[in-house]
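Methods — Computational structure assignment.
A single polypeptide chain was analysed. Its primary sequence is given first, followed by the predicted tertiary structure written as C-alpha cells.
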Amino acid sequence: MKKIANKSVLALLLALILLLQPQGMVSADQKNLQSEMPGGIISARMKYAVTSEEPERRASVRSNGSQENYDWDCYGSDYYFTKLSKQEQTLYLQMDAACKELLTQSVDAAKYTMGDGSVEYATKKIPIGNLSTDTIKKVRDLFYYSNPQYFFLNPALVYASGQTAYTALGVYPKFADASKRQAETQVVKQCLEEYKAGVQVSGSQAAMDQSIRDLICTKLKYHPAYKNADPIASDPDYTQTIYGALMSGQTICAGYTKLYVLLCNAFGIECVPAISKTHGWNYVRYGQTWYAVDLTWDDADDATKSYFRVSDSELKSADTSSGDHTVVPQWQALVPTATDSYHTKQDEQSLLTAPQIMIKDTPKGVKLTFDAPDGDIYYAIGTDVNLSERQAVGSVSLTSGGMYVVTAKAVREGCLDSKYTVAVVQIAEGDATISTIVNRSKNKIRLSYQVSQLCEGYEICYASDRKFTDAKTKKLTAKSAVIKGLKKNEICFVRVRGYKTDAYGNYYYTPYSVVKRIKVTK
C-alpha cells in the first residue's frame, strides 16, 4: 500500500473517518426501547494518522521491574489472549508493552496528526505487519476491556498504512503529560486499595464475589447524562474507563464491566468482559462453571430482577430489539458460555486450600515444587496465565536470570478453585566463570573468577567430592580468593557464583560456574 500523498486520498480518508465515528452509546430510537435498562459502550474510533511525534524516552522515576508490573497485571484477564492466533497474540503483547510503559514510566504520550489536521494523543507506534484493520480492532477491543488497569486509554484507535504501517491506542489528553499521569496513577492506586479493603475475603469464592458485586453497586451510580439525555461522544467524564467510576462514582456499563473485571481478578476470581454494539457485561467462573453478570442492569433503579450470576438465556430474555446481550461478531467464538444460573446450594461447595510453593536454591538456578492437601495444582510463571495447560507434576526448574512471578491454585471437580498463592522468585543475571585456580603454597588454593553481569559479591563453594555433600561456602566481594586448611593430596572441587540482595537484604544468585577440580600437591 502507498503512503498518504495527495488531497484526493486525504478526502477519502476523511470520509472514512466520518463513517467510523462512534454513533454515541445508543441511538435515539434505541434509547426509547431500552429506557428502563441503560447501556453505554462507545466502539473504537478508527482514526487515520498522517504524521506522528514520538516523545523522548526519559528515564523512569519509578521502578518498572516485574514485581510492579505484576502489581498491575493482576487486575487484568488474559483469558481472551490465550484464544488468539500467534500473530494476534504478538499484537496484543505489543499493546500491553506500550500501555505498561505509560503506566509505570515517566514518558509522555505520543502525538499524532490526523488526516483532518486534528491531534490525537496515543501510545507509541505498534507495528501491525499484514493484519487487517478488522483484526486490529478486534485485538484492541479484547485488550481494552480485559485490561482495566490502563485507565488513561480512550476509545480512539490510531492507524497508518503504507510502508510504515502501525497502530496506537488513544490516550485521553488529560493523561498525555507524564508527570500529570503519574500523579493520577497514584490517586487511582489509592482508590483501588480502598475498594479492595471493602471486599469480604473470608468464606467461599461465591461469598467473596457477592461482596465485590455489593461493593460496586453501593459505590457506583449510572451516569445521569447517559440515562436521561443523548450520549456525549466526547466523554468528558471518562465513562469508558475505571477512572471516571473511581473519581466521581458515576459511570456507564463500560465502567461497571471494567471495575468488576479488575476486582474479581485481583482476588483470584476469573472474570472476563463481553460487549455488544451498545452494551457491556461480564462472565465469572466458579470451578468449571461460567455465569453471566450484568452489574449495570443489576444496579439499575428500576430493575425488576437480578442479573447477577445468571445463564445466557436469562440475560437475553430481557433484551430489547437492539440485542443488548448479543456479542459482537468478532467475539462470538471467544466468549464463555453460561448454561445455568447460580443456585444457593452451590455455596455448600468447599473452597479448596491454596497450595504452597516451595523454592529451593540449586547450582543451575531455582527449583519450584508445589503442595496442596487435595486437588490438582495448576501454576503459571510470569505473564503465562493459561493455567489449564500447566498442571504441576513434579518440580519446575528456572535457570535464566530475571524476576519470576509464580502463581498457583488447587482445582478439583465439584469444588471451588482455591485462592491463588503468589511467590516472587529472583535469579541474578550473568554467567559465572573461574578464570584461574592453582595450588601455589602449602594447603592453600588460589583462584580468580568473574561474572558477566554486574553483581554485589561472590559466593565460593568447595568440597572434597563432586556432589558437594560436605560443601563449605564463603561470601566475599573481591574477584579472587584463597581457600585454606586443605590437606596435601586432597582433591578439591570448586564452583563460584555471583550474588545480589533485594530490598529486604535477601540474597539471590546467578547459576554456579562450571566445577573446577584441583589436587592439593603442596
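Note: The two ends are 77 Å apart (CA to CA).
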